[in-house]
Design brief:
Elements lengths: L1 E6 L3 E7 L4 E8 L6 H14 L8 E6 L5 H12 L4 E2 L21 H14 L3 E6 L2 E7 L5 E8 L1 H11 L19 H28 L4 E6 L2 H5 L7 E2 L3 H15 L1
Parallel strand pairs: 1-4, 4-5, 6-9, 9-10
Antiparallel strand pairs: 1-2, 2-3, 6-7, 7-8
Helix pairs in contact: 1-2, 3-7
Length: about 260
């Protein structure tokens, strides 16, 4: 079995792949101090809750938090006896080209989403990922990553709004019934929800205009289903896009 790990700034996701399907997907908060032993106890406890014995013989990691990779490497080596593949390292090859400015480091999560999108849908894609940051990744006709856009994430914006404006409360992200709010919470929810709908629609429209061709728009990330309610810009939503990309990259390296 393959263990695919996607380590983001906010959450870390573990998915077990048996070669044909994901047996389970587990999510935990990203914590810098978590040790390999703590990962193992948490992981195996939840696996057994799902009725799965941890028969892992391969691990692949995508991490936007470099300092966490060491403990995940130890976790893989100590408990599964294998050296993990790490996206972004020289020994982990990608099945697509990366065509950006020389010296630019592209986040591994963005490369993984590019691989997954191209594997499932071909080229000419915009992948919108609602994570800690809201990212827009542009995939060329041949599957190459050719750049994109990074905007503040929804929850990051809400936290900054609350922190810098003392009178404004914490709120949940939800679609308001009306655009015009009649109280503080409604006003904030409208601003966040419809503001991000406008951001997504506007950036996707400008990317399409700049490319001068039809493009498929894929939404992924935790808040993507919520924002699907406010726009017809998305052609599809895929909650397992990143994990699928990790399985494709692992298979490509094994076959090579």
């Amino acid at each position: 079995m393959l263990l695919a790990i996607d380590c983001g700034n906010t959450n870390t996701v573990f998915s077990v792949w048996d070669g044909e399907r994901f047996l389970c997907t587990l999510r935990t908060s990203t914590e810098h101090q978590r040790t390999a032993d703590q990962y193992f106890v948490w992981f195996t406890t939840l696996l057994r809750h799902h009725g799965i014995e941890p028969d892992i013989n391969a691990v692949i990691i995508s991490s936007t938090v470099p300092r966490l990779v060491f403990n995940l490497r130890v976790f893989s080596d100590r408990y599964f006896g294998c050296r993990p593949m790490v996206v972004g390292k020289p020994d982990c090859r990608l099945p697509v080209d990366v065509r950006v400015d020389a010296g630019t480091n592209v986040g591994p999560d963005r490369l993984v989403n590019t691989v997954a999108g191209h594997d499932r849908h071909g080229g000419d894609l915009i992948v919108v990922d609602f994570g800690t940051a809201t990212t827009f990744d542009v995939v060329d006709h041949d599957g190459a990553y050719i750049g994109g856009v990074i905007a503040p994430g929804v929850n990051l914006s809400l936290e900054a709004l609350h922190r810098e404006a003392a009178a404004l409360p914490h709120i949940d992200v939800t679609r308001p019934e009306r655009v015009i709010g009649t109280n503080t919470v409604d006003c904030m929810q409208s601003g966040v929800f419809w503001g991000y709908v406008g951001l997504v629609d506007g950036i996707c429209a400008r990317i399409k205009a700049e490319r001068g061709r039809a493009m498929t728009v894929i939404a992924t990330g935790g808040l993507a289903p919520l924002f699907q309610q406010g726009t017809d810009m998305f052609d599809m939503f895929e909650d397992d896009l990143t994990m699928h990309g990790l399985t494709v990259i692992h298979s490509y390296n094994k076959e090579g």
